[in-house]
Amino acid sequence: MATARKDSPGTPVPSGPPDLRVAPDAVADGRPAELGPEALRALAHPLRIRILDLLPSHGPLTASRLGEILGESSGSTSYHLRQLAKHGLVREVEGKGTARERWWERTPGGFSISSAGKDSPAGRQTAEAVNSEFLRLRHERVMAFLRATQEADEEALGTWLGATTFTTNNLWASPEQMVAVVEAWEQFAAEHLDPLRGQEGDAGTVPVEIHFDAFPTVDLHGNPL
């Protein structure tokens, strides 16, 4: 089963597939809450996932602007925003916009999705489908960046030289050792990534993604993936 972490440190789930964590900010126990069945079903729509995926990097957006980016009508994006808002996944930006032009942002606090512990095959399949779509979109952005580097000038390349990396380490480790690695990542994230939050629009900053993946390359029965 797919293992993914997005914009967040993760927590291993020894008895099942780990969860996908999306844009967690500070929450009471340090971990974003898992989506309930109704919210998960509401999210299980490619356009809604795409909307949630766009908001962090593009900043607050109106339904009209989202429609332009996604090639959809503003009526369609407005409807899906309202459905996401019903489940607390997006919210209106206070003090911005008008009655006719509402601005939306992803709700701070984040959420997690796991197929582990779901009480029905349909629930597990829905969780897997949503996780897979988030991962597909992440891969799209990685490939878009690689294509952009082919067209960038030397000055632009020099600016990001040393600030971008795609790293894979193929090792052998026990579950206990992997727990230690994930815990070390969580500490690193708290020390180095959390201070970067809330800098949207600050001079010299651009949207970035920082990934950390840690997963066995065998299935739950020990068969190679």
UniProtKB/TrEMBL annotation:
Domain HTH arsR-type: 28-128
Entry keyword annotation includes Transcription regulation: yes
Gene Ontology molecular function: DNA binding; DNA-binding transcription factor activity
Pfam families the record matches: HTH_20
Keyword DNA-binding: yes
Keywords attached to this entry: DNA-binding, Transcription, Transcription regulation
Domain of life per record: Bacteria
InterPro entries in UniProt: ArsR-like_HTH (IPR011991), HTH_ArsR_DNA-bd_dom (IPR001845), HTH_MetalResp_TranReg (IPR051081), WH-like_DNA-bd_sf (IPR036388), WH_DNA-bd_sf (IPR036390)
Renumbered residue ranges of the record's region Disordered: 1-32
Descriptive protein name: HTH arsR-type domain-containing protein
Organism annotation: Promicromonospora citrea
